[in-house]
């Protein structure tokens, strides 16, 4: 029987993994971005999904080979589109800045990733909107969107706290019109991961029929969706490697100013750690979704809220908010409280829905 409280806990663990995965990358030395992103990504998109699915599910290859071709096509396609969204996130920050860019891109990602699957399958109007527990879950989504926007206001306020010369440097490429279009594209494409997972529902049923524990029936779907994401990222990193002529770095590192070289072995270990940690966000996501009952669609909101909560806390741990004004910190803490409240409200809505509330 689904346990929404346990589901929220799993989503929090997944959010922590997503917020933490980049920390090992910060210690990689002597490699260009495209090199360490590609090597870590191979663990994220290929190695970890297939290894963990092989260990935790029954007859993985049999289940995937039995999946209909159209399901394969949708999962891979949505994964590919999600990859495009991730690659344009940096452009969103470049043209709009941290505050406005985060608010628009992540709000759209949370909104469309949560609501579009039930709207498309018709359950939104028949099972969610008319019911009390469905309305509570939607209120939780509203709190999440409000929290994202308030955190975004905190990011904008942080920019205003900077000295004038640094503020001009941060926003020197600010372009509202171009930035809005990029942010909308980023948010819509990033939400496609949720569509890919929803498209894989038949594969979850096949995995369950093969005898897989209900907690892990979503792992084969991750293998499919992440293949599409891998394709997008590998092509982009390959382009950058050719353009910047950095391919030789996979067997060596740039020398430091004193002539010494960072440890290439340690770079590989750090990239592997970062990649597997990144994958764990969706490993626990599928576990959390399995516990949310009929309102599994709300998992995407819980996922987004948890990521932002723990990313903000990492920001404090890494002193990224050091020197911020009281106004900025007020925005950040208010946004965090709204996001935490959203996870509690959504969990409660799922709980009373599972208990038969109407």
Automatic annotation (TrEMBL):
Q: Where are the transmembrane segments?
A: 6-23, 35-55, 61-83, 95-116, 136-157, 178-198, 218-242, 263-285, 297-317, 329-352
Q: Keyword set for this entry?
A: Cell inner membrane, Cell membrane, Membrane, Sugar transport, Symport, Transmembrane, Transmembrane helix, Transport
Q: Does the keyword Membrane apply?
A: yes
Recorded hits in Pfam families, A to Z, give: RhaT
NCBIfam families for the chain: PRK13499.1-4 (NF010024)
How is this protein named in the record? L-rhamnose/proton symporter RhaT
Species of provenance:
Asticcacaulis machinosus
């Amino acid at each position: 029987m689904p346990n929404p409280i346990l589901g929220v806990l799993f989503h929090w663990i997944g959010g922590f993994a997503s917020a933490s995965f980049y920390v090992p990358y910060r210690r990689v030395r002597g490699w260009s971005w495209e090199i360490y992103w590609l090597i870590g990504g191979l663990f994220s998109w290929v190695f970890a999904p297939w290894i963990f699915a092989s260990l935790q599910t029954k007859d993985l290859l049999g289940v995937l080979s039995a999946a209909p071709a159209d399901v394969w096509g949708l999962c891979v396609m949505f994964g590919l589109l999600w990859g495009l969204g991730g690659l344009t996130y940096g452009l969103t920050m470049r043209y709009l800045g941290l505050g406005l860019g985060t608010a628009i891109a992540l709000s759209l990602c949370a909104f469309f990733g949560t609501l579009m699957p039930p709207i498309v399958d018709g359950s939104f109007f028949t099972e969610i909107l008319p019911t009390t527990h469905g309305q509570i879950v939607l209120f939780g989504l509203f709190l999440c969107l409000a929290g994202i926007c308030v955190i975004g206001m905190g990011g904008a306020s942080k920019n205003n706290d900077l000295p004038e010369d640094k503020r001009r440097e941060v926003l020197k490429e600010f372009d509202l019109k171009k930035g809005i279009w990029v942010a909308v594209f980023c948010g819509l494409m990033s939400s496609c991961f949720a569509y890919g997972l929803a498209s894989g529902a038949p594969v979850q049923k096949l995995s369950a029929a093969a005898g897989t524990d209900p907690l892990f029936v979503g792992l084969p779907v991750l293998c499919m969706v992440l293949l599409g994401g891998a394709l997008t990222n590998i092509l982009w990193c390959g382009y950058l490697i050719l353009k910047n002529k950095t391919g030789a770095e996979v067997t060596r590192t740039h020398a430091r100013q004193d002539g010494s070289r960072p440890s290439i072995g340690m770079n590989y270990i750090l990239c592997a750690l970062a990649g597997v940690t990144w994958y764990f966000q969706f490993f626990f996501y599928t576990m959390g979704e399995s516990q949310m009952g009929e309102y599994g669609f709300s998992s995407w909101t819980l996922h987004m809220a948890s990521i932002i909560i723990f990313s903000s806390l990492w920001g404090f741990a890494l002193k990224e908010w050091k020197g911020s004004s009281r106004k900025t910190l007020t925005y950040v803490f208010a946004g965090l409280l709204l996001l935490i409240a959203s996870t509690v409200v959504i969990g409660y809505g799922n709980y009373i829905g599972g208990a038969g509330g109407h």
